Automatic annotation (TrEMBL):
Full protein name: Bifunctional protein FolD
Pfam families recorded: THF_DHG_CYH (PF00763), THF_DHG_CYH_C (PF02882)
Native organism: Oceanobacillus halophilus
One of the GO BP terms on file: tetrahydrofolate interconversion
Annotated ranges, domain Tetrahydrofolate dehydrogenase/cyclohydrolase NAD(P)-binding: 140-280
Gene3D superfamilies: Leucine Dehydrogenase, chain A, domain 1, NAD(P)-binding Rossmann-like Domain
Length: 284
């Protein structure tokens, strides 16, 4: 293996320590404890486990959090009413509705109900617009975590060719935008892209957010590329794996992120950062 591994678990831990200091200063100097409210609808086991991880991390840095658990049968109207109440509640700084929601609830409707100034996921169209304009805002946590990982290793982005595989609203689209904001030349690839390899082999920075295990291998990447694996796939054996075949790709890449201990922990660290930002208020 020649690539340097960017360990997201260690970096997230360092960030949480910094955030812990920041929160204790806020408490001491301003008497403000940031508060995050997480809303979970239904019994999706993966969602339950993610939410637990978010609450645990919040507690560790001194952010207070509450979890509202609603049954699968909750109507869209009931959920929208709850969000309205949380928007009005001055003690709540950040609101996170865990996705996916049950099929009978329109996700976009729910996201758009959240007050953009409490939208710590950065999913509200107002915040997506602010991000596109390069304004100060809540950046979506996974893309924000990816940029933070690149910067932590002083990996230059400006002028580089970044290729993003995946075009989801949560990861693919916004990470491409953030790389563009950092002056990269960005190419988006997706499930309908013809000759994917033609693009991936030209990438200086390759972001892989496909959602299928081991799709990208050494032959798909350029020598010395930076490879960021956003996939979290559970194999039948129970083992977690990314979208990239780590062992082969690591022989060719200059930097690579593993799964687990890669992008995942960074997503949660950025959520905490956004919650503190929400408690401080966005720049006007
Ligand atoms: N489901 C999967 N990832 C996320 C995320 O980053 N935020 C929310 N709210 N739900 C998710």
């Amino acid at each position: 293996m020649s690539a340097e591994v960017i360990n997201g678990r260690d970096l997230a831990q360092e960030i949480r320590l910094e955030l812990k200091d920041e929160v204790s200063k806020m408490i001491q100097e301003e008497g403000v404890t940031p508060h995050l409210t997480v809303v979970l609808v239904g019994d999706n086991p993966a969602s339950k486990s993610y939410v637990k991880g978010k609450e645990k991390a919040a507690k560790e840095v001194g952010i207070s959090s509450s979890l509202v658990e609603l049954p699968e049968t909750t109507s869209e109207e009931e959920l929208l009413n709850l969000i309205h109440k949380l928007n009005e509640d001055k003690t709540v700084n950040g609101i996170l509705v865990q996705l996916p929601l049950p099929n009978h609830i329109r996700e976009q409707k729910v996201i758009e109900m959240i007050n953009p100034n409490k939208d710590v996921d950065g999913f509200h169209p107002v915040n997506i617009g602010r991000m596109m304009l390069g304004e100060d805002t809540f950046l979506p946590c996974t893309p924000y975590g990816i940029i933070t990982m690149l910067k932590s290793r002083n990996i230059s982005i400006e002028g580089k060719h970044a290729v993003v595989i995946g075009r989801s609203n949560i990861v693919g689209k916004p990470v491409g935008q953030l790389l563009l904001n950092e002056n990269a030349t960005v190419t988006y690839c997706h499930s309908r892209t013809a000759n994917l390899k033609e693009f991936t082999t030209k990438a200086d920075i390759l972001i892989v957010a496909i959602g299928k295990p081991n799709v990208v291998t050494a032959e798909d990447i350029k020598d010395g590329a930076v490879v960021i694996d956003v996939g979290i796939n559970r194999l039948e054996t129970g083992k977690l794996t990314g979208d990239v075949d780590f062992d082969s790709a690591a022989d060719k890449a200059s930097f690579i992120t593993p799964v687990p201990k890669g992008v995942g922990p960074m997503t949660i660290a950025m959520l905490l950062k956004n919650t503190i930002k929400a408690a401080k208020g966005l720049e006007k």
